[in-house]
Amino acid sequence: MDLSDFIDAHLDELVGDWEQYARELSVDTADLSGAELRNSGRNLLVKIAANMRVDQSPEQQRGKSLGVESGLADGFDQVSIEHANRRFAQGFGLNDVVAEFRALRASVLRQWEKNSATGPGGFQQMIRFNEAIDQGLTESVRQYALRAQRVRDLFSGVLAHDLRSPLGVVLNSAEILLCDKSLSPAGIKATAYMQRSALRMKRMIDDLLVFSGSRLGAPLPLELTRQDMGRICQNVIEEINVLFPHVSVRLNHEGETAGTWDAGRIGQLFFNLLSNAARYGKGGIDLIVTGQAEGVEVVVANTGNPIPRSAFPTLFDPLTRVLAIPNEGGMAAGIGLGLYICRSIVMAHHGAIEVESDDFGTAFTVRLPLNSGAAGASPPPGV
To answer: What is the pLDDT of residues 220-257, one digit of tens each?
Structure first.
């Protein structure tokens, strides 16, 4: 008897073993009916048997062994995806899903060995069965990981959004206190520390919102209005001066620099670049804004240790840090999203960003069109 026929003939027995093992894996299955658990196993086994009967080319067989989609129109991949979705919703962990497939493989092969003669044909049947199990496992793990990542991204996005309101109260309160003429010198110093810390938190929350949105596939929303790049940069410098009072930023403004951009996003872009220069560089920072015929060019340049050439391919990837921060007196380093956010904002404005770094210093160059066109753009690759 072929293994695929054996699965069909002993389906109820195999599904019973599946249900028992699934209940042992997770205490959360106590609330699940036997039908819910059995249906998952039954669907997988039926599709596995059908998959084994479908003729496949050597290329398809090799592709399955490498985890490549089979290209067979048998619905097996979709059943594996649906199985992962159900297990995720039922509270199973990823290790539980893997263990289910492992137990299913062992149960079927043990039962078949006891009930069927083996030979060259049986060996080929085992190969096809193992390929089908591996294919289903690959699709289930991939889908489970996607579902889990989406939940994490939703959580981080909701958390960041909800933190903005109380943080706004802290910032407004600090600003009011700093205007109070009766505040003691010690009170002014403490309030200034509070303001700087709250501003750092605000910037990290803003970056986290952009990151979580991009991970969920949402385009970066823009509010395009007529702006002056020189004024935007001056406002950012004032904020940098609050957070990094020991750092001098020199603004050089040349030519006509008015255009249509999202002022908040552009401010976020140059705040990230300037704060990186303040943290990792030495001495002052040059911020050069140059108006050109069809756009504006902004260069953020600083001296200090160069960025290693090996880091360039992943420099703008999320959650990546290249250099250890020198003595910053305990200043927070952020969450490793700064340059990824910069690239996201530049791409949303249909611009370009590049970096040069050597022993003489590091310079980030941003080029933006005068009119960024339609608001929003897809997130950059690599997330």
So the answer is: 888 899 999 999 999 999 989 888 888 999 999 999 99
User: Are 259 and 210 members of one domain?
Assistant: no
**Residue finishing a domain among 218, 249, 267:** 218
In terms of residue numbers, what domain contains 305?
Answer: 225-369
What is d(CA 338, CA 353) in angstroms, rounded to the nearest whole number?
A: 13
Domain boundary among 172, 195, 218: 218
DSSP 28: G
Question: Using CA atoms, how far apart are residues 314 and 226, in angstroms rounded to an integer?
Answer: 33
pLDDT band at 163 (very low <50, low <70, confident <90, very high): confident
Reading phi first (left if > 0) and then psi (alpha if -120 to 50, else beta), residue 91 is in left
Q: Let me know if residue 383 belongs to a domain.
A: no
Q: Helix 229-243 vs helix 185-215: angle between axes, to the nearest 10 degrees?
A: 120
Length of the chain: 383
Q: How far is CA 144 from the centre of its chain?
A: 16
Q: Please indicate, yes or no, if residue 381 is contained in any of the structural domains.
A: no
Q: Which of 45, 80, 30, 8 is nearest to 22 (CA)?
A: 30
> Is 76 buried (19+), middle (13-18) or exposed (0-12) by CB count in 10 A?
buried
pTM: 0.61
Cβ-contact 240, 274 below 8 angstroms: yes
In whole angstroms, give the CA distance from residue 126 to residue 131: 8
Instruction: Provide the number of structural domains found in the chain.
Output: 2
Give alpha helix (H) positions in the chain: 3-9, 11-25, 34-53, 58-65, 76-89, 94-115, 120-178, 185-215, 229-243, 263-280, 338-348
